[in-house]
Write a structure and sequence with these properties.
It is built from 13 helices and ten strands. It is of the alpha/beta class. The chain folds into two domains: about 100 residues, NAD(P)-binding Rossmann-like Domain (Rossmann fold), CATH 3.40.50; about 230 residues, no CATH class. The longest helix has about 35 residues.
Length: about 375
Amino acid sequence: MALRSARGAVLLGTGPIVDELLGEMRARARCGYRVIGIVTRNPVDEENYRGWPVLGALDELHRIVLEWQPEVIVVALPETASIAEIQQLLDAKVRRHVQVELAQTVYERITGKVPIESSVAGEVIYSDHFQPGRVSRLVARLSSLVVALVGLVCLAPLLMLISLLIKLDSRGPALFVQERLGAAGRRFRLLKFRTMHPAENHESEWENDNTHRITRVGKWLRKSRLDELPQFFNVLKGDMNIVGPRPHPACNFELFVLAARNTPESGLQIPYYSLRSSVRPGITGWAQVRYRYANNLDEELEKLRFDLYYLKHYSLWLDIRIMLETALMIFARGRSARAAAESRPPRSTPELRVETEQVRLLPAQDRASQYPRF
């Protein structure tokens, strides 16, 4: 998210949130902040931190503000900050008119995701955010019903044409049904157009193992995202909304939890995961327009950061923005696919996105090294 102008900023504190924030600021030239340097909580001998100059310690903040004249101080201090430390910040804010912002807030603003590893449990549990109110949920539900009804009526000829093409292209039903997890962890049967050949003895649920099963019509449906259209019926049934976190396959979710519990490097890396189920899942969502498909636990954790941002900052306008960005993304993907097809050498095979259509639990020995795609 680009801001209007770059403001000179000093970062107060060190640790994971500061490291991540510095990396994001370095990667985003138009993030709206120009990092001047780092202010540590206690005096240190190092002259730089992660490549940025150390300007001094917190007890020197008055001098640092006078010398470097920052426009904003980005604070990453623990909740146990002393009265003297708080007074230093108050003096900078009141007497020198320097804006003071929390590192977590700045991180969310420039990335569109929540730094879950640095979030304090109390801030999440006792916050008014992360769970839209009754009015917000009602507005989301009504708007989803309107969009689904209008979509089904207007797209009825296209839906029938796609169904016919699927039946002509390969054997099997036109629709694929898969059990997914919805609001409050309730299971429901998600509908999609079938894009794979049926497999009597499927190999596995992994992307590379199923590429050969994609049908000719399925390639087109997946590139255009038209395979998701039958989920308008899920919206009418109450299983989903138009916008929300994407529902995870029930079997994949079980494997995901098993892997998280059984691998020491990941067992405690999924905080606040259950918050995703506080709202209805969606056909599209903030994570879908901001991030790629997840193929391992780290990427799934990254998508969770975006999902939590959506829950924390939910509004009708955010839903509208997501729907517009989804339409633009589909249009851009189709345009880039056509351009790639025109420039592609003969007999080359395009890369395909493959979601699981048939799933099974992997043997226990495989869980520590492989993770499902959600």
